[in-house]
Amino acid sequence: MMTIPAPPAEPPGTVLSAQRLYKRFGGVQAVRDISFAVPAASVFAVIGPNGAGKSTLINLLSGIHQPDAGRISFDGADLVGLMPHKRARLGLARTFQKIRLFRNLTVLGNVIAASHMHRELPIWHYVIHGPAFAREHAHVRERAMELLAFMGLESRAGALASSLAYGERRMLELARALATAPRLLMVDEPAAGLNAAEVEQLVERISRLRQRGMTIIVVEHNMDLVMQIADRVLVMDYGQYLFEGKPAEVQANPAVIAAYLGA
User: Fold this and answer.
1) Alpha-carbon span 107 to 164, nearest angstrom
2) 7 lies in a domain?
3) Is the alpha carbon torsion for 48, 49, 54, 55 positive or negative?
């Protein structure tokens, strides 16, 4: 573990920050000296060519991997060493580039399963189904149906997840992540495989979540989507920081253009 200096003070309004993150897999330095700060109630995009280290960065933030060095702070809490389920209880949720659903559960069942992360009843209520269990189950089901309606899946609530079309599965994964009641949502390639109408729906949903005060980190290749929704954009290349700025600044930066199009 390399020694790093104390981090600089975070900008006011920061909800998540990373200072000098490093991650190596064998001989590959997947993330090298990455630092950034995400303001609350904003959309922060991470972009870069294939192999730039974007998904590795999200895995470090969500706890799937631990950094070799560096610090990650969420609302003042140190995340390094914390397992993914504990980060989720703090209010971090994520989706995956490769969709991960409970295929043999219904659409509604997938969302209900995620909702129980914040259950308030003692565990024995889930064995002996008394009045308290019935009340909580009704509340969880109602909330799950609201999320399905928000994602345009209300009519598919009783269908098996395995029967959904690809775009519907993407929306279900988002609904399931939202069921954990996150304060910060990380989405990895959410537009991958979607048609134009589905991308438009995705943009509208992300915009509405931001308007409601949620902070969102988006890893995405669809540049039109990024330029529509992002407040700030971090550009990575070969695991390293390349540029950070507003969408218009990113589009005009010569180093970013060279990384994407070739110098």
Assistant:
1) 9
2) no
3) positive
Banded pLDDT at 117 (limits 50, 70, 90):
low
Look up the CATH number of the domain holding residue 205. 3.40.50.300
Give the domain-ending residue among 181, 203, 238. Answer: 181
Edge-to-edge strand list for the sheet holding 14-25: 77-78, 69-74, 14-25, 28-39, 240-245, 232-237, 43-47, 215-219, 184-188, 92-94
- SS3 (DSSP) at 90: helix
The residue assigned the tokens 């294939």 is 50
b/e 177-210 (16+ beta carbons within 10 angstroms → b): bbbbebbbbbbbbbbeebeeebbebbbebbeebb
- Taking a C-beta distance cutoff of 8 angstroms, is the pair 199, 191 a contact? yes
pTM of the full predicted structure?
0.88
pLDDT for 146-191, tens place per residue? 999 999 999 999 999 999 999 999 999 999 999 999 999 999 999 9
* Tokens read off for 13: 């309004």
How many structural domains compose the chain? 2
Does the pLDDT value for residue 138 go beyond 70? Answer: yes
CB 156 within 8 A of CB 148: yes
